[in-house]
Amino acid sequence: MFSLSDKKLGQDILLKIKKEKIKAKFMHVCGTHQDTLVKHGLDSLLKKCGISIGQGPGCPVCVTTPLEIEKMLLIVRNGAIVTSFGDMINVPGEYKSLGDMKAEGYDVCTVYGIEDAVKIAYENPTKDVVFMGVGFETTAPATAATILSNPPKNFSIFCCHRTMPYALKAILDIGELKLDGLIEPGHVSTIIGIKPYEFISKEYGIPQVIAGFEPIDVLMGCWMLVKQIKQGKTMVENEYTRVVHPEGNIKAQKILNEVFEPCDIKWRGFPVIAKSGLKIKKKFECFDASVKFKDVLKDLENKELHEPDGCLCGELLRGLISPFDCPLFGQACTPETPVGPCMVSVEGSCNIEYRYSEK
Amino acid sequence: MFVCLAIPGKVVDIENNKEHAFVDYGEGTKRKVNISLVNVKVGDYVLVHAGFAIEVLNKKEARETIALFREMLSFEEVK
Question: What is the per-residue pLDDT across A152-203, written as a single tens digit (0 to 9) for each?
């Protein structure tokens, strides 16, 4: 009942867009949106109707920096058990990934969610167990709720959580590309609601639509943006009303505010973005791996690490290029031998493009 | 795993401590899910992400989505 399947409706929406004879460039920031666009060929259908749409910094694994990965490698070398989501484990830092360390015999575990990591901590009371917490507002509440559930003392979190609205502001401030509309991620919005996006429409005069992940949702989101452009409106609209409440998930927001405070953080491909990260509050610092392992990590503090040679993931995450513009795509860089994170993660544009172009 | 993907399922049982529930994703797939981020009762549909229910779905709205979109398309001609 929650999947929308109506081919005729999809064709009707495309026809409506085409009739408006508009040329517009949209950005979305979600791997699942990109998957829907490429899997169903909607990106090329929309192009024929005058709409070009691409992915920005919307892949949590991809925007995690090489420095954060190197810190995890150091922690695992120090004897801790490191846990994270599968894709994160396979992204290389400067040279090696956590997966490479696992192959060398270090304790690295892939988990489905943070509760699996807590279970590992209970099962290994004499070892430190660190969960590398990546993800946007969709994922961060689970980390916060886990901290509040009083996990064992040998458990801690290396917090790489980031938040979306100020990253969108950064894209617009950098000003490398002219955007006519933003499709906002449905499941981030499930948590934060509509309000945190409003300053973007107000300050930058850009229409936004929160959209779901079915093909109809994405097409409808584009049509709603086109409609705003034609009517000269710049506001935040919600296409995904069956899931996203205008005020978001207030219970989750309260838990987030109790545990985290905003911090400035670097995103891969970007400079430091003000207020776009989540830091564990001092009150809960016994669960903060960056505090617990401060001495281990001190040599890496403020170190500048370089992207892999020739890798254009940064340009891709800023929406400047498509995977096909990268000379490494499908040649030196494939899911089997990934050079950058956008080919590792199933939410990365390169991985998505490669997967569906094979079929 | 898609870090931002969430999957809908039906709450079939809630544990006594009210912290976890069993969620049926259909075709016999059931999983234990943390429900501390939502207020749910048995029979509700929830959206599950990385082992946590992050929202309760609006069944009525979901049923009417297609009809609503059709209506928007036919009546909201761009002026």
Answer: 999 999 999 999 999 999 999 999 999 999 999 999 999 999 999 999 999 9
Say yes or no: A2 contacts chain B, CB-CB below 8 A.
Answer: yes
Closest CA to A245 of A234, A235, A253, A256: A253
Q: Say yes or no: A135 and A107 in one domain.
A: yes
Beta carbons of B52 and A6 less than 8 Å apart? no
Q: Quick one: A17 and A152 in the same domain?
A: no
Question: How many cross-chain Cβ pairs, A to B, lie less than 8 Å apart?
Answer: 139
> Residue A345: which domain range?
313-354
Q: Residue A51 phi/psi, 5° resolution? A: -110, 120
Q: How many structural domains compose chain A? A: 3
Residue numbers in A near B5 (CB within 8 A):
31-32, 187, 213
A32 with B4: Cβ contact below 8 A = yes
Per-window interface: A 318-347 vs B, CB < 8 A? 345-347
Q: Which fold has domain B7-75?
A: SH3 type barrels. (2.30.30)
- Residue entry with tokens 């945190």: A196
Read off the DSSP letter of residue A162: B
Domain boundary among A238, A258, A280: A238
- The domain ranges of chain B are 7-75
CATH number at residue A217: 3.40.50.11750
- Test B54 with A220 for CB contact under 8 angstroms: no
Residue in chain B closest to A87 (alpha carbons) equals: B1
A27 plus A175 within the same structural domain: yes
Q: Judge whether A205 lies within some domain.
A: yes
Per CB-CB distance under 8 Å, the chain A contacts of B45 are 1-2
CA distances from A345 to A31, A283, A351, B50 (A): 9, 33, 6, 16
Lowest mean pLDDT among A46-55, A68-77, A276-285, B61-70: B61-70
- Chain B residue with Cα closest to A230: B78
Write out pLDDT tens, residues A313-344.
999 999 999 999 999 999 999 999 999 999 99
Sheet holding A51-55, edge to edge: A51-55, A24-28, A181-185, A208-211, A236-238
What ipTM, to 2 d.p.? 0.90
Residues of B at the A interface (Cβ-Cβ below 8 Å)? 1-6, 8, 19, 34, 36-39, 45, 47, 49-52, 54-55, 57-59, 61-63, 65-66, 69-70, 72-73, 76, 78-79
**Spatial separation of the C-alpha atoms in residues A290 and A282, rounded to whole Å:** 12
Q: Does position A115 have pLDDT exceeding 80, yes or no?
A: yes
Q: Do residues A317 and A346 both lie within one domain?
A: yes
Q: Are residues A149 and A65 in the same domain?
A: yes
Whether A83 and A220 share a structural domain: no
Strand partners, A162: A277
CATH of the domain at A85: 3.40.50.11740
